[in-house]
């Protein structure tokens, strides 16, 4: 049978392949945990909407639990939570039910895995959260639990509004990024000056998100900007790496070599920004940029092309735009990119 090769069909097939590959990644991580016995004290963590981000987060946690590799020193958890997660539920809309020793993948069934959970991560699209939480049986299942939302734009108040007053959940907003899959996420956890988390919940939040990278804390009011910078940021950086590689490809460098060289160059510079200062401290990007720019050399020539094209302002504007759009995502409507002039 001939297929209709529409862009939509091709995109769908690509996404399906990606999701299948990601689920294999998760199973591999689970498998690596095989020998570990579950502690009776262990908590159950359920991801409602286990797609790109949910898989990256669970993968990072499973990886951390299965390896003796300790967390990076700068993300060390000062106060370990009393109890750690040891059982995991991944809930999806499609796919199939699969049960492993530590992980169960559920398809189109949220109530039971939510009943089993001590911690719930909301990992579906922001506009779905209302429907997911208001579905039959969910209000009771979620009652009194720790609900962590990674959804762009949704405020804690909006999530609480989806739950009846008797539900008494602790709702915390956290914004990780896709680098969670390689345990290099930058996750921002929202803080509330009026309702600080109890120390054990706070320690649990730190533990969960330091499994997948670094953690920072910001007031809730800053979360949309953090979403743009840290959540969308990886896509912006991918575009920069891709564009630099394109220049080299145009000048005759083989494609694969160009991507590798551009990516490693970006990685080296980000490492310098983080630790290239005196005593291993952070260094200002402008100082590092100046160090590369030999007077009369090629770097200053290239930099001026970028400045003349307004790259700095354009990138800053992209972060500002993404901040505004992130805020609109919380309103539960689709197509928000088309709503502004
Ligand atoms: N992608 C990113 O880089 C980041 C995303 N976020 C936020 O994370 C959230 C998830 O994004 P992302 O992982 O990219 O999205 P995905 O589309 O990859 O994942 C969403 C998941 O939700 C599942 N799902 C859909 N409907 C239901 C339902 N009724 N019950 C249970 N699960 C359901 C989907 O299942 P199925 O695949 O079977 O349809 C899918 O697995 C969003 O809210 C986003 O704002 C935050 C930071 C970064
Ligand atoms: O683009 C989005 O809506 C999500 C949130 C941050 C990154 N990806």
Automatic annotation (TrEMBL):
EC class name: oxidoreductase
GO molecular function, one term: pyrroline-5-carboxylate reductase activity
Keyword Metal-binding among record annotations: no
Domain of life: Eukaryota
Pathway given in the UniProt record: Amino-acid biosynthesis; L-proline biosynthesis; L-proline from L-glutamate 5-semialdehyde: step 1/1
Keywords in alphabetical order: Amino-acid biosynthesis, NADP, Oxidoreductase, Proline biosynthesis
Domain spans labelled Pyrroline-5-carboxylate reductase dimerisation: 221-324
Reactions catalysed according to its record: L-proline + NADP(+) = (S)-1-pyrroline-5-carboxylate + NADPH + 2 H(+)
Spans traversing the lipid bilayer: none
EC number, UniProt record: 1.5.1.2
UniProt domain Pyrroline-5-carboxylate reductase catalytic N-terminal: residue ranges: 45-153
Family note: Belongs to the pyrroline-5-carboxylate reductase family.
HAMAP family in the record: P5C_reductase (MF_01925)
NCBIfam families given in the database record: proC
Protein name in UniProt: Pyrroline-5-carboxylate reductase
């Amino acid at each position: 049978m001939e297929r209709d090769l529409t862009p939509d069909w091709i995109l769908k097939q690509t996404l399906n392949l990606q999701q299948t590959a990601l689920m294999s990644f998760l199973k591999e991580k689970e498998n690596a945990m095989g020998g570990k016995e579950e502690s009776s004290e262990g908590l159950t963590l359920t991801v409602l909407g286990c797609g790109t981000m949910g898989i990256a987060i669970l993968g990072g946690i499973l990886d951390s639990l299965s390896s003796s590799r300790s967390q990076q020193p700068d993300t060390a958890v000062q106060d370990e939570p009393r109890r750690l997660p040891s059982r995991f539920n991944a809930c999806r809309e499609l796919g199939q039910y699969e049960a492993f020793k530590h992980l169960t993948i559920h398809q189109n069934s949220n109530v039971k895995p939510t009943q089993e959970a001590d911690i719930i991560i909301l990992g579906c699209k922001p506009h779905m959260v209302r429907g997911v939480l208001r579905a039959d049986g969910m209000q009771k299942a979620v009652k009194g639990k720790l609900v962590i939302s990674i959804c762009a734009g949704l405020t804690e108040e909006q999530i609480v509004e989806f739950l009846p007053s008797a539900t008494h959940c602790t709702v915390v907003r956290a914004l990780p990024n896709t680098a969670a899959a390689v345990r290099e996420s930058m996750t921002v956890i929202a803080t509330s000056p009026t309702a600080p988390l109890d120390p054990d919940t706070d320690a649990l939040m730190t533990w969960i998100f330091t499994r997948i990278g670094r953690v920072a804390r910001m007031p809730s009011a800053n979360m949309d900007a953090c979403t743009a910078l840290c959540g969308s940021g990886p896509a912006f950086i991918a575009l920069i790496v891709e564009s630099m590689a394109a220049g080299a490809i145009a000048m005759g460098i083989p494609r694969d070599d160009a991507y590798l060289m551009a990516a490693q160059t970006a990685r080296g510079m980000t490492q310098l920004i983080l630790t290239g200062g005196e005593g291993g401290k952070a260094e200002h990007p402008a100082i590092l940029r100046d160090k590369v720019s030999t007077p009369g050399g090629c770097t200053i020539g290239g930099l001026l092309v970028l400045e003349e094209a307004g790259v700095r302002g354009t990138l800053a504007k992209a972060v500002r735009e993404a901040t505004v759009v992130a805020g609109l995502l919380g309103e539960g409507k689709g197509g928000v990119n088309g709503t502004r002039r």
